[in-house]
Each structure stands twice: as structure tokens, then as C-alpha cells.
Write a structure and sequence with these properties.
Length: 537
């Protein structure tokens, strides 16, 4: 029976990135995936004839350019088109347009509040300052605060060095930032309801928290720290849909001699003598390896595919208490043409970006209140994009593909999900959009509706949580997934984790998989081929 140097469980983008860097270093690597296709949540699928849906993740920003370059993903077909503009519609028929051009954006903010136009300059500068500071930590392994190892001490020294340029008041402000709600944070800058609502959205996407919940300010930063073509905070569409990212990484992996097996769900990680020795598939087949890497979330890894006898009681208890609440739904819609938005001029560039329909913090918080009662939001927060405006490969000529991310939707609706309830959830979202686009319903050719339950069943994300765990202070850096296991190594020798349950967290970033590969190669005494220590951006 063939034995591998490394087996990676799960062909999501982090698992593929991890495997690609291991293979690039000369290891014989196998990726095993339960589905008959790769990508996990980073996938493109033809679920309606002629339309390619990015049916889970839908926009690209966080994916690290260092990884793109190190794996030469351009040569493997990955192309990201920058997304421009954005809009939040108001109930009174007006809107806030988040134009791409700074001068026009400033005039638009001033249309709603002259004070906010000045405050936006300060807000942008402060946010980018924190983004640049945090970005320096993304491709680094968190230091263990309880360790006396030289490497951990040096890493702490490196972290402290990053703060030398900050004043005393800025350091206090940075620490405060991690514990604040997004509403409190933004209200220190802005007064206009629609401006507050527009900038709050990024703080609740994928999060089981509301705009007034402590810790949501950081989630906004997490979404803002990416870049496209060197433009920090920019977003983009992967040509061919988000599955193009997984496809390009898989191509790089295979170019280095790595292998992928689909339809191969793992039953258990084999452990003998306190060492991981390989995996047992659901089919009963056993595959041996020197190293086993789990791209699954912390709950599925420690409570699902590991035998409790092989784990310390502390790890089991921590995994059980790991916060990983699903709160997001998704609709993918095939349209017969471009919908009209009467508030905007025909052909407005604002339709090229994110479109939102919630114009006050109160409405956002009420949407969260519904979720807390195990109901989908009656007035949901919707993030709608139409990537087929940029990418003609997603839909037939003259048609469009619409991706709709929805906050909030419970893992289990009150009384349990039924097909009727799932359809009612989808109808609520479509009604929300139709309030601002009267011909939207008439253009619909097909709708795919996904609650957290569907997302979990397909991707293996516990509770449909898109980040593999909440991005709160108690689950960040050396606390992710929990203390003592934040450096990608598992509780048994030769077992590692590389998914978004590890630092630096969720999103289509590739950093957890890359960082884990670096630690594996270090433990194996291999030449490091992963990007690391790029310094501040």
C-alpha cells in the first residue's frame, strides 16, 4: 500500500494551498476531499444550465498576493478583476453611492452630511493604519505567550516592534478597537444614518453578532485588510467565479507532483503511539502518511475525525466550547437581463459593486434580533453583487448571474427547517431586493437558496459558519482555535491544522494553509518554500 509524506484532509483553498507548498518543497502529497469536486466553499458550479454560480464565497480581496506570486497562480489561470463602486439604497428613494473615485465619493458623502465628508478622510486614514499594522501578522505564526522558547520570544519582540511607531494614545485606541462594537466605533466619526449603515455591513457578514455587539469593529477590519493590485481595502471578482481560485491552486499543486482524490471522505485520523499515521476513509480504505493535516474546522477535526481516546480532555472541552455559530444565508439567481434600480441613473457605475438595502443601524440590529430568536431576518441585511457585468463567462449573452449574501439566517429555524420555510426565507430576500428593483422578480429564471444547513452539508463548515469560528478577541491570534494549539500543530505528533479555525481566520485568504505548511516544513527539516516575514505592507 502506497504511503505519502503528507495527507491533507479537505480540498478547500487553504487545504490546497497547504498541499501546494508542501509539494513544492519536494514532499509526496495527497489531498483527500469528500465531494466529487474541489474548492470547498471556494467553488464555481453550474447549478442552472449556462450559469456559473459562485455558490458560497463570492468576492475576492483577502487572498494574499504573496501566495499568488509564490505559487505563480497567474500562470495557472487565476485572474482577479477589481470591483468598483457600491451603493446603499434608502427607504425614501434616495441612496448613498460609495464611488470608487475619491473626489466623487467625498462629494457624495457631503450630499448626506458635510461633517461626515471631513470625518471620512480621518476614518479612511485610521482604518488603513490598522489594516497595515495587522497585515504584517497575517503570514506569521502567532507566538505562544506561555512559551519560553527563543523563537516565541523573538516573535513577541517582532510584534512589539510593530507598535514602536504608534503614539501612546494610538496604542490605547488600537486595544480599544478590538473590544468595541462597530456602531460605537463608527459613531465616533459619522452622523448620517445611511453612512453609518453602509460602513457597518462589513462588520456583521458571516458573524453571529449585531452592530451593537462588542468585537464587531474588528470584523470590519478583517474584511478591509485585503487588497487587489496593491490597493488596500479593494475587492474583486475571480474570472470564472470563485472556483477559479481553487482550480489555480490545484493546478499549481499538481505541477509540483501533488495528487488530489475526490469522493474520499475521511472517517478518522489514524493515531498509534501518540503519532498520526494516516487516515481511514469512510469506505474503509486506510492510507498511511508521515504527516496528517486537517483543513476542517476545529469542531469537525477534534470532535468528528479524531478518536476521543487520542485527545487530552482539555482539547475536547475547548473544541466543544469553540464558538462557531452559523448566521448567514445565500441566494444565487439567474436573471434574464439586467435589473433596473429606479433610484439610480441607467448604467450607473454603482451597480458594479456591492448593493445594500438596509439604511439604518436600527434596522441592522433588528435583523440580528430575529436571528437570536431562531428566525431568519424579516428585514434582512443583503449584500448583492452582479459579477456577470465584469465576467461574461458566468452567464449567457445578455443574461446575468446575481450573488446575494444574507444576514441573518439561523442554522435551525424555529421548529426546524422545512422546504416551505426555506422557500419563505428566499422569498423574504427577493422581496427585499424587489422593493428597490421593480422588474427584478420578472427577470428571475432560477434561484438557488442556501441556509446554513445547506452550506454545512455541502462544504463541511460547522453550522455553515463561513469563518470556521467567530472572529472575536477570545478566538484570535494565539487564542485561535484555542490556547496551546495556535501554531498549527495538533495534540498528537505529526498532526496539523491548516483551516480558517487557525490564525489569521476566515475568508478566501490562503494564509492559514500557507502558515501551516511553513511549520510542517520546519518540523521536517525541509527547505522553506513558503512566503514569510514580508514585513509591513
Amino acid at each position: 500500500m502506497k504511503s505519502y509524506d503528507a495527507i491533507v484532509i479537505g480540498a478547500g483553498h487553504n487545504g490546497l494551498a497547504n498541499a501546494a507548498f508542501l509539494a513544492k518543497a519536494g514532499l509526496d502529497v495527497l489531498v483527500v476531499e469528500k465531494n466529487d469536486y474541489i474548492g470547498g466553499a471556494t467553488v464555481s458550479r453550474e447549478l442552472h444550465e449556462g450559469w456559473q454560480y459562485s455558490n458560497c464565497s463570492y468576492v475576492c480581496s483577502l487572498f494574499r498576493p504573496e501566495i499568488y506570486q509564490a505559487l505563480d497562480l497567474g500562470r495557472h489561470g487565476l485572474e482577479v478583476v477589481p470591483l468598483q463602486g457600491g451603493v446603499t439604497f434608502k427607504q425614501n428613494g434616495d441612496y448613498y453611492g460609495n464611488y470608487h473615485q475619491p473626489a466623487i465619493r467625498r462629494r457624495e458623502i457631503a450630499r448626506h452630511s458635510k461633517r461626515d465628508a471631513d470625518a471620512a478622510i480621518r476614518f479612511d486614514a485610521d482604518l488603513m493604519k490598522w489594516c497595515r499594522l495587522i497585515r504584517g501578522f497575517l503570514l506569521r505564526t502567532p507566538p505562544d505567550p506561555a512559551s519560553f522558547k527563543i523563537r516565541d520570544a523573538m516573535e513577541f519582540a517582532s510584534l512589539l516592534k510593530s507598535f514602536y511607531s504608534l503614539s501612546e494614545s494610538q496604542i490605547y485606541e488600537f486595544i480599544r478597537f478590538f473590544t468595541m462594537s462597530i456602531a460605537e466605533y463608527l459613531e465616533e466619526y459619522f452622523e448620517s444614518d445611511v453612512i453609518l449603515a453602509h460602513f457597518s455591513g462589513g462588520s456583521i457578514i458571516g458573524t453571529g453578532l449585531g452592530v451593537y455587539s462588542p468585537g464587531t469593529a474588528y470584523v470590519l477590519l478583517h474584511h478591509a485588510m485585503g487588497d487587489i493590485d496593491g490597493n488596500v481595502g479593494s475587492w474583486g471578482f475571480a474570472r470564472g467565479g470563485m472556483g477559479s481560485i481553487a482550480k489555480a491552486i490545484a493546478s499549481a499543486l499538481q505541477s509540483y507532483g501533488g495528487n488530489i482524490r475526490t469522493g474520499a471522505e475521511v472517517q478518522e485520523i489514524k493515531v498509534r503511539g501518540r503519532k498520526a499515521r494516516g487516515v481511514v476513509l469512510k469506505s474503509g480504505e486506510e492510507i498511511s502518511a508521515r504527516v496528517v493535516v486537517s483543513n476542517l474546522d476545529a469542531k469537525r477535526t477534534f470532535l468528528g475525525i479524531m478518536n476521543p481516546k487520542d485527545l487530552p480532555e482539555y482539547v475536547i472541552r475547548r473544541a466543544e466550547n469553540f464558538k462557531i455559530r452559523g448566521s448567514s444565508g445565500k441566494l444565487n439567481i439567474a436573471l434574464d437581463g439586467m435589473p433596473d434600480f429606479p433610484a439610480l441613473e441607467k448604467g450607473s457605475p454603482l451597480t458594479l459593486g456591492h448593493m445594500h438595502f438596509t439604511d439604518t443601524l436600527e434596522r441592522l440590529e433588528r435583523a440580528y434580533d430575529d436571528w437570536k430568536d431562531d428566525r431568519w431576518s424579516a428585514d434582512p441585511y443583503v449584500d448583492l453583487v452582479i459579477p456577470s457585468q465584469y465576467d461574461p463567462t458566468l452567464a449567457p449573452a445578455g443574461k446575468h448571474m446575481v450573488s446575494v449574501f444574507v444576514q441573518y439566517c439561523p442554522v435551525e429555524a424555529e421548529g426546524g427547517w422545512t422546504e416551505e420555510k426555506r422557500e419563505a426565507f428566499g422569498a423574504t430576500v427577493i422581496d427585499q431586493i424587489a422593493n428597490y428593483s421593480p422588474n427584478f422578480k420578472d427577470l428571475i429564471l432560477h434561484v438557488e437558496i442556501r441556509t446554513p444547513s445547506e452550506i454545512e452539508a455541502e462544504t463541511g463548515l460547522t453550522g455553515g459558519n463561513i469563518f470556521q469560528g467567530e472572529l472575536t478577541l477570545d478566538q484570535l491570534m494565539f487564542n485561535r482555535p484555542f490556547p496551546g494549539y495556535a501554531q498549527y500543530r495538533g495534540p498528537v505528533k505529526n498532526m496539523y491544522m491548516c483551516g480558517s479555525s487557525t490564525h489569521p481566520g476566515g475568508g478566501v485568504m490562503g494564509a492559514p494553509g500557507t502558515n501551516a505548511a511553513r511549520e510542517i516544513l520546519r518540523d521536517l527539516g525541509k527547505v522553506n518554500t513558503t512566503p514569510e516575514d514580508f514585513g509591513d505592507d
